[in-house]
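retry 2 of 3: previous attempt timed out while embedding LXAUTJHC. Reduced batch size to 1 and resubmitted. Inputs unchanged:
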Amino acid sequence: MSAPRLVVHRDKELMAEAAAARLITRIVDAQSARGTASVVLTGGRNGNGLLAALGTAPARDAIDWSRLDLWWGDERFLPEGDPERNVTQAREALLDRVPLDPARVHAMPASDGPHGDDADAAAAAYAAELAAAAGPGDEGRVPSFDVLMLGVGPDTHVASLFPGLPAVRETGRTVVGVRQAPKPPPTRISLTLPAIGAAREVWLLAAGEDKAEAAAFALSGPDPVEAPAAGARGREHTLWLMDAAAASKLPAGLHPPVSA
Ligand SMILES: O=C1O[C@H](COP(=O)(O)O)[C@@H](O)[C@H](O)[C@H]1O
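retry 2 succeeded.
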Protein backbone atom coordinates (compact mmCIF):
# COMPACT_ATOMS: atom_id res chain seq x y z
CA MET A 1 0.00 0.00 0.00
CA SER A 2 1.29 3.47 -0.92
CA ALA A 3 1.50 6.48 1.39
CA PRO A 4 -0.67 9.48 0.47
CA ARG A 5 0.83 12.30 -1.59
CA LEU A 6 -0.92 15.67 -1.76
CA VAL A 7 -1.37 17.98 -4.74
CA VAL A 8 -3.07 21.29 -3.96
CA HIS A 9 -4.53 23.57 -6.64
CA ARG A 10 -5.72 27.17 -6.39
CA ASP A 11 -9.44 26.43 -6.69
CA LYS A 12 -11.86 23.65 -7.54
CA GLU A 13 -12.09 24.55 -11.24
CA LEU A 14 -8.34 24.28 -11.69
CA MET A 15 -8.30 21.11 -9.60
CA ALA A 16 -10.89 19.52 -11.90
CA GLU A 17 -9.00 20.56 -15.04
CA ALA A 18 -5.65 19.33 -13.71
CA ALA A 19 -7.16 16.03 -12.53
CA ALA A 20 -8.83 15.54 -15.92
CA ALA A 21 -5.48 16.10 -17.67
CA ARG A 22 -3.83 13.65 -15.27
CA LEU A 23 -6.56 11.08 -15.97
CA ILE A 24 -6.17 11.39 -19.73
CA THR A 25 -2.44 10.67 -19.35
CA ARG A 26 -3.04 7.63 -17.13
CA ILE A 27 -5.66 6.18 -19.50
CA VAL A 28 -3.51 6.73 -22.59
CA ASP A 29 -0.48 5.19 -20.85
CA ALA A 30 -2.47 2.14 -19.69
CA GLN A 31 -3.97 1.63 -23.17
CA SER A 32 -0.55 1.85 -24.71
CA ALA A 33 0.96 -0.59 -22.17
CA ARG A 34 -1.87 -3.12 -21.83
CA GLY A 35 -4.31 -2.42 -24.65
CA THR A 36 -7.13 -1.35 -22.34
CA ALA A 37 -7.61 0.85 -19.31
CA SER A 38 -9.93 0.54 -16.33
CA VAL A 39 -11.15 3.44 -14.26
CA VAL A 40 -13.42 3.51 -11.23
CA LEU A 41 -15.65 6.60 -11.10
CA THR A 42 -16.95 8.37 -8.04
CA GLY A 43 -20.16 10.28 -7.52
CA GLY A 44 -20.42 13.64 -5.83
CA ARG A 45 -19.58 17.19 -6.82
CA ASN A 46 -15.84 16.74 -7.32
CA GLY A 47 -16.16 13.54 -9.34
CA ASN A 48 -18.74 15.07 -11.64
CA GLY A 49 -16.68 18.27 -11.93
CA LEU A 50 -13.74 16.19 -13.11
CA LEU A 51 -15.88 14.39 -15.71
CA ALA A 52 -17.22 17.70 -17.02
CA ALA A 53 -13.64 19.03 -17.28
CA LEU A 54 -12.60 15.85 -19.10
CA GLY A 55 -15.36 16.46 -21.64
CA THR A 56 -13.89 19.83 -22.62
CA ALA A 57 -10.19 18.95 -22.30
CA PRO A 58 -8.35 19.46 -25.61
CA ALA A 59 -6.53 16.10 -25.22
CA ARG A 60 -9.67 14.03 -24.60
CA ASP A 61 -9.46 12.62 -28.15
CA ALA A 62 -6.17 10.94 -27.22
CA ILE A 63 -8.27 8.37 -25.33
CA ASP A 64 -9.54 5.34 -27.21
CA TRP A 65 -12.96 5.39 -25.55
CA SER A 66 -13.87 2.00 -27.00
CA ARG A 67 -11.06 0.35 -25.00
CA LEU A 68 -11.94 1.85 -21.62
CA ASP A 69 -13.72 -0.05 -18.83
CA LEU A 70 -15.66 2.10 -16.40
CA TRP A 71 -16.68 0.87 -12.95
CA TRP A 72 -18.21 2.66 -9.97
CA GLY A 73 -16.95 2.91 -6.41
CA ASP A 74 -20.46 3.24 -5.08
CA GLU A 75 -24.03 3.83 -6.08
CA ARG A 76 -27.12 5.30 -4.51
CA PHE A 77 -29.59 2.38 -4.61
CA LEU A 78 -32.42 4.06 -6.52
CA PRO A 79 -34.45 3.24 -9.66
CA GLU A 80 -32.77 3.31 -13.08
CA GLY A 81 -32.55 6.85 -14.44
CA ASP A 82 -33.08 8.49 -11.06
CA PRO A 83 -31.31 11.88 -11.20
CA GLU A 84 -29.59 11.14 -7.89
CA ARG A 85 -27.92 7.97 -9.14
CA ASN A 86 -24.19 8.40 -9.63
CA VAL A 87 -24.34 6.77 -13.06
CA THR A 88 -27.11 9.16 -14.20
CA GLN A 89 -25.01 12.14 -13.17
CA ALA A 90 -21.89 10.71 -14.83
CA ARG A 91 -23.82 10.17 -18.07
CA GLU A 92 -24.96 13.80 -18.01
CA ALA A 93 -21.51 15.12 -17.14
CA LEU A 94 -19.65 13.15 -19.82
CA LEU A 95 -20.50 9.56 -20.68
CA ASP A 96 -23.36 10.29 -23.08
CA ARG A 97 -21.01 12.41 -25.22
CA VAL A 98 -18.11 10.02 -25.78
CA PRO A 99 -17.99 6.84 -27.89
CA LEU A 100 -17.76 4.28 -25.07
CA ASP A 101 -18.46 0.59 -25.63
CA PRO A 102 -21.73 0.07 -23.67
CA ALA A 103 -20.55 -3.43 -22.68
CA ARG A 104 -17.61 -1.81 -20.87
CA VAL A 105 -19.74 0.61 -18.83
CA HIS A 106 -20.26 -1.39 -15.63
CA ALA A 107 -22.96 0.53 -13.76
CA MET A 108 -24.00 -0.83 -10.38
CA PRO A 109 -27.53 -2.32 -10.30
CA ALA A 110 -30.58 -0.11 -9.75
CA SER A 111 -33.28 -0.77 -7.14
CA ASP A 112 -35.79 -1.66 -9.88
CA GLY A 113 -33.38 -4.03 -11.62
CA PRO A 114 -33.19 -7.84 -11.57
CA HIS A 115 -32.47 -7.92 -7.82
CA GLY A 116 -35.37 -5.67 -6.90
CA ASP A 117 -34.78 -3.70 -3.74
CA ASP A 118 -32.37 -6.28 -2.29
CA ALA A 119 -29.16 -4.24 -1.99
CA ASP A 120 -27.16 -7.26 -0.78
CA ALA A 121 -28.12 -9.32 -3.83
CA ALA A 122 -27.30 -6.36 -6.09
CA ALA A 123 -23.92 -5.98 -4.35
CA ALA A 124 -23.18 -9.71 -4.78
CA ALA A 125 -24.03 -9.46 -8.49
CA TYR A 126 -21.60 -6.56 -8.92
CA ALA A 127 -18.92 -8.50 -7.01
CA ALA A 128 -19.44 -11.38 -9.46
CA GLU A 129 -19.12 -9.01 -12.43
CA LEU A 130 -15.85 -7.67 -11.01
CA ALA A 131 -14.54 -11.19 -10.36
CA ALA A 132 -15.35 -12.18 -13.94
CA ALA A 133 -13.27 -9.23 -15.20
CA ALA A 134 -10.30 -9.99 -12.93
CA GLY A 135 -7.16 -11.24 -14.64
CA PRO A 136 -4.89 -14.12 -13.64
CA GLY A 137 -2.70 -11.83 -11.47
CA ASP A 138 -5.67 -10.27 -9.69
CA GLU A 139 -6.37 -13.02 -7.14
CA GLY A 140 -9.72 -13.61 -8.83
CA ARG A 141 -11.55 -10.86 -7.00
CA VAL A 142 -11.41 -7.53 -8.79
CA PRO A 143 -9.43 -6.19 -11.76
CA SER A 144 -6.27 -4.18 -11.08
CA PHE A 145 -7.97 -0.86 -11.76
CA ASP A 146 -5.62 1.68 -13.33
CA VAL A 147 -7.21 4.60 -11.48
CA LEU A 148 -9.87 4.53 -8.78
CA MET A 149 -11.33 7.92 -7.84
CA LEU A 150 -13.11 8.74 -4.60
CA GLY A 151 -14.83 11.96 -3.59
CA VAL A 152 -14.18 12.66 0.09
CA GLY A 153 -17.31 13.59 2.05
CA PRO A 154 -17.29 16.23 4.81
CA ASP A 155 -17.56 13.36 7.32
CA THR A 156 -14.53 11.58 5.71
CA HIS A 157 -16.70 9.02 3.91
CA VAL A 158 -15.46 7.65 0.60
CA ALA A 159 -17.58 5.63 -1.85
CA SER A 160 -20.47 4.67 0.50
CA LEU A 161 -18.19 3.73 3.39
CA PHE A 162 -19.35 5.95 6.24
CA PRO A 163 -17.58 6.28 9.61
CA GLY A 164 -18.63 3.58 12.07
CA LEU A 165 -21.00 1.66 9.76
CA PRO A 166 -20.39 -2.08 9.19
CA ALA A 167 -19.34 -1.64 5.53
CA VAL A 168 -16.09 0.10 6.45
CA ARG A 169 -15.06 -2.89 8.61
CA GLU A 170 -15.62 -5.41 5.79
CA THR A 171 -12.54 -7.50 5.11
CA GLY A 172 -14.00 -10.39 3.09
CA ARG A 173 -16.42 -9.18 0.41
CA THR A 174 -15.43 -6.75 -2.33
CA VAL A 175 -18.88 -5.12 -2.67
CA VAL A 176 -21.53 -4.69 0.03
CA GLY A 177 -25.04 -3.32 0.47
CA VAL A 178 -25.13 -0.31 2.82
CA ARG A 179 -28.14 0.65 4.90
CA GLN A 180 -28.85 3.62 7.16
CA ALA A 181 -26.27 5.82 5.47
CA PRO A 182 -26.29 9.24 7.16
CA LYS A 183 -26.37 10.95 3.74
CA PRO A 184 -29.44 10.32 1.55
CA PRO A 185 -30.40 7.96 0.17
CA PRO A 186 -29.92 5.58 3.11
CA THR A 187 -29.53 2.46 0.98
CA ARG A 188 -26.45 2.20 -1.20
CA ILE A 189 -23.97 -0.23 -2.74
CA SER A 190 -20.25 0.21 -2.18
CA LEU A 191 -16.86 -1.23 -2.94
CA THR A 192 -15.09 -2.15 0.29
CA LEU A 193 -11.63 -1.06 1.41
CA PRO A 194 -10.01 -4.35 0.21
CA ALA A 195 -11.49 -3.82 -3.28
CA ILE A 196 -10.34 -0.19 -3.31
CA GLY A 197 -6.86 -1.37 -2.29
CA ALA A 198 -6.59 -3.48 -5.45
CA ALA A 199 -6.28 -0.35 -7.60
CA ARG A 200 -2.90 0.69 -8.92
CA GLU A 201 -3.72 4.32 -8.18
CA VAL A 202 -6.29 5.73 -5.77
CA TRP A 203 -7.14 9.42 -6.15
CA LEU A 204 -9.05 11.17 -3.38
CA LEU A 205 -10.77 14.35 -4.56
CA ALA A 206 -11.44 17.08 -2.02
CA ALA A 207 -12.42 20.62 -2.93
CA GLY A 208 -14.20 23.25 -0.87
CA GLU A 209 -14.04 24.53 2.67
CA ASP A 210 -16.53 21.91 3.85
CA LYS A 211 -13.87 19.25 3.19
CA ALA A 212 -11.10 20.95 5.19
CA GLU A 213 -11.77 19.29 8.58
CA ALA A 214 -12.28 15.91 6.91
CA ALA A 215 -8.97 16.13 5.01
CA ALA A 216 -7.03 17.23 8.10
CA PHE A 217 -8.50 14.41 10.18
CA ALA A 218 -8.14 11.68 7.54
CA LEU A 219 -4.52 12.63 6.92
CA SER A 220 -3.64 12.60 10.63
CA GLY A 221 -3.45 8.79 10.71
CA PRO A 222 -6.77 7.79 12.30
CA ASP A 223 -8.42 4.35 12.31
CA PRO A 224 -10.24 3.98 8.95
CA VAL A 225 -13.34 2.90 10.88
CA GLU A 226 -13.50 6.47 12.17
CA ALA A 227 -12.28 8.09 8.94
CA PRO A 228 -12.80 5.81 5.91
CA ALA A 229 -10.77 8.14 3.66
CA ALA A 230 -7.71 7.19 5.73
CA GLY A 231 -8.07 3.57 4.65
CA ALA A 232 -8.24 4.21 0.89
CA ARG A 233 -4.78 3.46 -0.48
CA GLY A 234 -3.61 2.40 -3.92
CA ARG A 235 -1.01 -0.30 -4.54
CA GLU A 236 1.33 2.06 -6.36
CA HIS A 237 0.06 5.58 -5.68
CA THR A 238 -2.36 7.33 -3.36
CA LEU A 239 -3.00 10.91 -4.39
CA TRP A 240 -5.04 13.52 -2.60
CA LEU A 241 -6.07 16.05 -5.26
CA MET A 242 -7.26 19.14 -3.44
CA ASP A 243 -8.02 22.80 -3.73
CA ALA A 244 -6.59 25.40 -1.36
CA ALA A 245 -9.86 25.63 0.62
CA ALA A 246 -9.91 21.89 1.35
CA ALA A 247 -6.23 22.03 2.31
CA SER A 248 -6.67 25.06 4.57
CA LYS A 249 -6.74 23.10 7.85
CA LEU A 250 -3.83 20.76 7.14
CA PRO A 251 -0.92 21.06 9.57
CA ALA A 252 1.89 23.17 8.12
CA GLY A 253 4.20 20.17 7.64
CA LEU A 254 1.65 18.40 5.46
CA HIS A 255 0.60 21.34 3.29
CA PRO A 256 2.53 21.20 0.00
CA PRO A 257 2.97 24.35 -2.10
CA VAL A 258 -0.18 25.35 -4.01
CA SER A 259 0.51 24.37 -7.63
CA ALA A 260 -1.10 27.41 -9.29
O1 LIG B 1 -22.96 10.46 -1.87
C1 LIG B 1 -21.83 10.48 -2.29
O2 LIG B 1 -20.97 11.43 -1.80
C2 LIG B 1 -19.55 11.32 -1.93
C3 LIG B 1 -18.94 12.72 -1.79
O3 LIG B 1 -19.70 13.66 -2.51
P1 LIG B 1 -19.43 15.23 -2.49
O4 LIG B 1 -20.55 15.86 -3.26
O5 LIG B 1 -19.42 15.66 -1.05
O6 LIG B 1 -18.07 15.46 -3.14
C4 LIG B 1 -19.20 10.62 -3.21
O7 LIG B 1 -17.84 10.33 -3.19
C5 LIG B 1 -19.98 9.33 -3.36
O8 LIG B 1 -19.61 8.66 -4.55
C6 LIG B 1 -21.43 9.64 -3.42
O9 LIG B 1 -22.25 8.49 -3.53
